[in-house]
Design goal:
The chain is of the alpha+beta class. The protein is built from eight helices and 16 strands. Helix content is about 25%, strand content about 25%.
Amino acid sequence: MGTPDFSVPALKAIAARHEVVAVYSQPPRPAGRGKKDRPSPVQSAAEEMGLTVRHPARLRDETEVRAFADLDADVAVVVAYGLILPKAILEAPKHGCLNIHASLLPRWRGAAPIHRAVMAGDAQTGVCIMQMDEGLDTGAVLLRDTTDIGGVETTSDLHDRLSDMGARLIVRALDDLSGLKLVPQPAEGVTYAHKIDKAEARIDWSRPAVEIDRQIRGLSPFPGAWTEIAGERLKLLRSRVAHGSSAPGTILGGLTIACGEGAVEITEAQREGKKPMGAADLLKGWALPARVD
């Protein structure tokens, strides 16, 4: 049960070793210039593999609950599915529902754990395989694995690594379901990864460079932190903390910009209507003003 790109490696890893009786994904959504319905990445991958795909709009209807129970599944694997599972669904498989969650629970329960870990400056994150209950990512943990967050890594970089980690970890869990111990989450250290609001994306250059750098990397590639240069919105995709100081927003040279404390060097960005580019290519033929807004 999954929807975005993050879920696809897990689907492929499970299908290589186990019988997948059905794949659940969010319904196709309008996308692209023509706004035609486009299947989710999970649906597309499952159909290429010849698997049965279901995409109900909700799971609380009695007919959907019955159809799910009739699969007689041993276990359901849920990864970034996007629908709330009612109690009847959670309890239908013999071993319940297992969730692949991209954080070290109980830190960063909720919708955007990868973004929040980068934005908070966490040194480490990871993946947990969790036995789902009716709470928000509150279930007991069966397996976990950790990884360091690099000093210039973006959410996109971390997303791909954690997706692959989750695929490997869920296969380990399924291979040894009866032998794994359920470890309740501790009451201490709980934080919530609230959904990213687009209002968080505009850069306030009066803040410290360390915080702005994390904001840029944490919101890359979506929704993308941004600033205005001569009235044009520039999407900032990669950065690092740099030396230098001046009034916040002052361009110190190249795409190094002064912050409230220190400076940030933009190493990749995207102008309106153009593709992402490294800073050197971006600056060719572009006469920058003295400061950004």
